[in-house]
Amino acid sequence: AGVVLFFRDLTSARRLEAMRADFVANASHELRTPLASLLGFIETLQGPARDDVKARERFLDIMKGQAQRMKRLIDDLLSLSRIEMRAHLSPTQTVDLATIASQMVETVSPLAKERGVVVKATLPDRPVLVLGDRDELLRVAENLIENAVKYGESGGKVDVAVARTEGPVPQVAFSVQDYGPGIAPEHLPRLTERFYRVDVVQSRDKGGTGLGLAIVKHIVNRHRGHLDIASEPGQGARFTVRFSEAGPRP
Length: 250
Ligand code: ADP
Fold this sequence. Notes:
The protein has six helices and seven strands, in the order H-H-E-H-E-E-H-E-E-H-H-E-E. The protein is an alpha+beta fold and 250 residues long. The strands form two sheets. It has a five-stranded mixed sheet. It has a two-stranded antiparallel ribbon with strand order 1-3. Strand 4 (157-165) and strand 5 (171-178) form a beta hairpin. Helix 2 (53-85) packs parallel to helix 6 (212-222). It starts with a helix and ends in a 6-residue tail after the last strand. The structure holds adenosine-5'-diphosphate. Adenosine-5'-diphosphate (ADP) binds next to helix 4 and helix 6. Adenosine-5'-diphosphate binds next to helix 4 and helix 6.
């Protein structure tokens, strides 16, 4: 049995090593693309477009966009690695999920307005407490609501809800439903993988890094919660996060 165990550990170590190498390759590629574009524009500005004032303005705008994309990517990579470093620590703050949800609906409202999406929140009138890390839970809410607004904008509305769930073990659920194109079933199991995107061009156009749901998944795991993704293509997508409720019910 010892030998079998040894081999199993070896293959899982190899698998981890392969995943790590894959991640580094993906991250490098994602950073290299905007960097190559920036270098290209710098060379053009130093050479052929040196005296073209109009082109300069346009190129600088594009360059700013590329630099912002690199910054978003690095910020997300740093968030992910910070969360991973804390993976073994259990969160200890008592946090009200309803406050988190309403705060984030407010924060996302300028983006929603810009995209013509109405975000409606259905929240209980009493606090819904979980043991958690406030900033991390805000991040979960931010990523899920922003995705619903960005990818589901054609649906025109997004429903955010916090509720207690029925059952013997007190649980609370935070859910975000959009009414956009939804996600085909074959993509669902891979959505939380780092850099996995249904449509890379669309994700880039919308300012995505491909790390948002990986960050959500890591945070939810650290909180011993569950992430559930349900979608009927053509009818939108629903992301639900469930946690144990903290303390006795009032
Ligand atoms: P990104 O930075 O690309 O948005 P995420 O990890 O947040 O990365 O999401 C991964 C992919 O999942 C997205 O690129 C998109 O294809 C898909 N996705 C996420 N949320 C939704 C949604 N609400 N509706 C449809 N597709 C979605």
